[in-house]
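<given_protein>
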Amino acid sequence: MTGKPISLLELTQRISNLVMNNSATQNVWITAELQDVACRGGHCYMELLQKDEEGRQVARIRGCCWANIYGPLSRRFLEATGQQFTSGLKVMLRVSAAMHPVFGLSLVIQEANPEYTMGDLVRRRNEILLRLQQEGILEDNRSLRWPTVTQRVAVISAPGAAGYGDFMNQLINNPSRLKFKTRLFPAVMQGASAPASIIAALAEIAKEANEWDGVVIIRGGGATSDLQAFEDYGLAASVAQFPLPIAIGIGHERDVTVLDWVANMRLKTPTAVAEWLIGKGEAVLGALMAAGNKIVQYATQRISGDKEQLAQAEALLPVAARGAVDRSKGAVTRAATTLYGLSSGRIAPARTRLDMVASTLSTASSAILRRHAERLDASEKLLEVLSPAATLARGYSITRIDGHAVTSVNDVPLGALLEITLADGSFLAHTP
């Protein structure tokens, strides 16, 4: 052992002198990622990280920003980026190394370059949009069409939020008294849990998609830093692929999130979303009223013209009737004269022909009747000759068994009772 040992305090003081009096460690611009950001008593404490391309930490150091610096610095940073100092941000900072005997080595933040952070946020957003485009879903929700009459609206918002109250008040108390069907699907609208909460609400709506015309995601005014919840790939993909059109109204006109790029409709506030829905309904109502007015106008014009035409017809009707009657009378007179002439020329010859036919008919009918009478007499005589009585008188007989005439000896069984008919009577006989 050589030399006198020194205390730990003395060593840390030497390190502190080396660090704090070296221009290489003072007022240096660095880039890092924020983690475990916490503000206490106006001061801001954090961890500053650097990661390699594979996400592994390659450097880590404690950082702090004292209240007299952090107040104006955070305001300028918020105005420029819309973000508070929060974990996950990539930042460019002007720092000075400090060594404290108790708290150790740290970097004291003196200034921040918001343009670097803005570039990183834009880069992350562009990466999400590029991924959605490569997956072919970036335009899916934006290509959907809202129904002409949009009255059934599923609402995703935080229960009891002022933005949700403004939306419902505007929608219910619209001047045109349009009726809307709405239901709140509650979700967390800020913080790390917001993306998963909104995705879960979308999943619930998807189960009953046929019940709704579209979806609105609304959030009232608040810290701009809360918009980081909407810069999420999973949430953006869910919105992009949702089967119903989605309107976004998250309360910031100048701020744009990745959801504004993938949703079907982007509006600046919840009230603006309600006004847009009311406007759609009023446009349809106006079109219907215009059509109704055109129908009334056309009907009025048609009725007026018909009345005028009816009045003219009413004035002409007596004259037209008298004219029609006179014309009919003339036609009847002419027809009667013509008919008389035609009948006189045709009836006389017809009468002569009828007289001739009557005379001829009488002679012809007498001859025909005589011929028929002669044929009848001849037939009567023939019938008398051929009758059964005449046949029996000539010595013939009729033999019957049980009322049936016998025509063959084969029809006569032994011991049969025969009925034999002669010209002057009949008798019974048995066969041997």
Observations:
- The domain at 135-282 is CATH 3.40.50.2300 (Rossmann fold).
- The CA atoms of residues 403 and 419 lie 8 Å apart.
- DSSP finds nine helices and 14 strands in the chain.
- The radius of gyration is 61 Å.
